[in-house]
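Pasting two entries for a bug report.
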Amino acid sequence: MSELKNRHDFVLLFDVQDGNPNGDPDAGNLPRIDPETGDGLVTDVSLKRKVRNFILLTQEKKPGFDIFVKEKAVLNSTIAQAYKDLGVDLNEKPKSDKDGKKRNTKGEAQGSEVDQGRAWMCKTFFDVRTFGAVMSTGANAGQVRGPVQLTFARSVTPIVSLEHSITRMAVATEAEAEKQGGDNRTMGRKNTVPYGLYRAHGFVSPHLAKQTGFSSGDLDLLFKAFLNMFELDRSAARGLMSMRKVIVFKHGSELGNAPAHALFDRVQVTPVNGEKPARSFKDYTVKVDTAKLPQGIEVMELAG
């Protein structure tokens, strides 16, 4: 795969209908919200989780496309496996005197061994070389600052959070059944957003990509994941979520040809009727100002 030589900044526009896009476990799983403005929020962690799930499903067993942070993973065990595959015995003294004449802590890498472990993790795991990772626990493979960074997503206009009563026509235990007196119905609650259009921003650094081995092919796969991450991650709780547009600003250089915020300001999302609550993507207009773009900037719309 070819080396990434161009900086990229991008805008993600996605929406939710009758679902909870990202519940807050510290608030009874209510949709996340900015209490001062009423804007809905979706964390970068939630978006990255969906990218990881897409890669796991579509790139399964392909060398270099495993996922480090996945369900039920034991991260320290994975880090220790890296050194086993590299043939580094973390219970013996370092092979090189440059790394020390004795092992300071058994089972923990030191010196250039950490660099080897970090490189192995980047080569093996897509999410490590993309988003970075803290791997300084356990056997210690250091830290990786990822070339791809995401912001929280924020709704374009304030959202309304609804709470619904739901009924389950069953109980979990016989004791519950006796308590209900034969009426095996139990009540629950479900939170939804009637409709919300969310906007997130992202950044890709070629300089950090060189350090992790993140290639142009990896970038193409990442954008494919953004386009399809809701299609393969359906849930009744999340309702209907759809990626509406991925708008990419490709720079003609590694350092970039314009500030990211100036490019993001060119993407204007406005309600068609500000007095009427939005209930679909058609209730918004999306315009990308491509007039008098800074020299070296190329705009690509990957969805819509």
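Entry 2 (this is the one that rendered wrong in the viewer):
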Amino acid sequence: MLTIRSSIFLFFLVLLLDVFGVVEALPQNRGRKGKGKNNAAARTPQQQAARIPQGVSQATDGSTILDMTARVNGVDLRFKISGPAAQFTTDSGVTGATQQAGAAGAMGLNVLLHGDGGQSFFDFPNQAVQGNLMGVVVLAPSEQLLWGQRTGGPSGLTRDDGAADAQAVNDLVQKVLPQVMAFNASNVFFTGVSGGSLMLSGFFVPAHMANFAGTGVMLMCGALPPQVDAVNAAAFAGNTKIHFQSTQQELASLQQSIPAAIQGYEQLAAGAGLAAAQINALQTVDNTPNGGHCAFDEQGFVSGIQLISDNFANIMQGGNGAVQGVNAQTVLTGVVGNENLQFGRGQ
């Protein structure tokens, strides 16, 4: 069995061999460079990721991580799922598994979608069980590891395949994961990072959140207003928590799209009959950290995402929203009256 230490060693070994630089900032509209005699440089990020072994390893809290791939709606979706070994199904192949496929469990899930380039898939910042939620992270089914953009290069805020990817994530959670892990299907939360947040807010939440109503969505360093029609908005707009977490030095394009997303979701809630106080209890926003894109700890991209991930329960599951390392009494500021965020100089 792979340990978490050996998995990390293998990961960084592949990075060095392949010159694999995954940068999870919102991409600019430019093509790939460096394709020449070096075959490693010619591989797509998807091909490079495929060279990193799948299998079983250990999470930071001692839980078991299963890294595998499933065919969903005609595409291969690689994912990691983490939790106590006994909660895996016997069909999963995990040592110590006790559950039958499709069995309900007492614990829920926190499903994370990484940003452009895939960094958070490999880091798996939500791997530890927190707030009775087991961790899941899904790899985008695209050449460049972009959510909502299966072919071609980076395209900024444009996500032509957002609807298809949203459907695939919905079907993965509802149809595939129950064959692998026993969990409470009424307690499934979602987390987005950068490009993953664009996909969640722009496509997944309006189209599919009625299937997971009453839980919540954390949108880190990115958001779009709904890009598709909301399906049964009345079922989720009045009972589902949405938190928008950003920074002062956010990317210039996101300084425009995040406020637009806040307004879009506030309007959905108002349309469901919620008063301002009720909306503020469900929809919250913060951009106080004086850091760059996703640097919520004002130090770095990876460490910033880990900080917010480690405080998921305190932000999303009834806590007071105080995050040590973020210079704010609480990150849970209601969106009503705070739609037009004030940013600093954009990256």
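Dev reply: Rendering is fixed now. As a check, the viewer should reflect this: The first helix runs from residue 4 to 18.
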